[in-house]
Specification:
The protein is an alpha+beta fold. The chain contains three helices and ten strands, in the order H-E-E-E-E-E-E-H-E-H-E-E-E.
Length: 183
């Protein structure tokens, strides 16, 4: 009996730091307030995976940034759709700076902060979700999932009225638009 208790205590002590990296702080340590709700950041250090989720009266969504395989996916809950695209790591905050961004956002709350807008054109349906990794595949399974490509210049034309923008941690605006060929 004593061995079982000692084993349980040791496992709890050893696993707590590891599991703490996979789950957001329930006291709001990885959350920022947004209009009508909050955004929560969850980091998985082992897989270099960032999950940002917004719960808000203005719309709920979830985005996964996979720094290992270079893909991002954004699930739009009201529309029940998912957008998947390639991540240009130079345009996104570094994985190691994400926690610091949450803290800076709390300190500067209410002040306008510079943001990077990244515009993607939605082109077509994803045929095989598994090729984007298990996290993205699990999040997007069962709902229409679309490939999106970063706008490179004026030759990439899209319907401005079809765009949906997601403000991620007051740092990056992900803007998904339909091209004229798929409006």
């Amino acid at each position: 009996m004593k061995l079982t208790i000692v084993t349980a205590v040791l496992l709890g002590v050893l696993l707590t730091p590891t599991l703490a990296e996979d789950f957001p702080n329930p006291e709001g340590g990885n959350q920022i307030a947004v209009e009508g709700g909050y955004q929560a950041l969850n980091l998985n250090n082992e897989r270099h995976l960032a999950t940002i989720e917004q719960q808000s009266t203005r719309g709920s969504w979830k985005t996964i940034w996979n720094y290992d395989n270079g893909f991002i996916a954004t699930k739009v809950l009201p529309d029940r759709s998912c957008f998947i695209c390639t991540m240009n790591r130079e345009e996104f905050p570094g994985f190691d700076t994400l926690r610091r961004l949450i803290e800076e956002n709390r300190i500067l709350e209410g002040e306008e902060q510079p943001r990077r807008e990244i515009t993607f054109i939605v082109k077509g349906l994803v045929r095989d979700l598994n090729s984007y990794g298990p996290d993205i595949s699990n999040m997007c399974r069962g709902i229409p999932s679309y490939l999106a490509y970063k706008v490179q210049g004026p030759q990439d034309r899209y319907n401005e009225g079809s765009c949906t923008t997601f403000d991620v941690m007051r740092t990056v605006d992900l803007k998904y638009c339909h091209g004229y060929d798929n409006v």
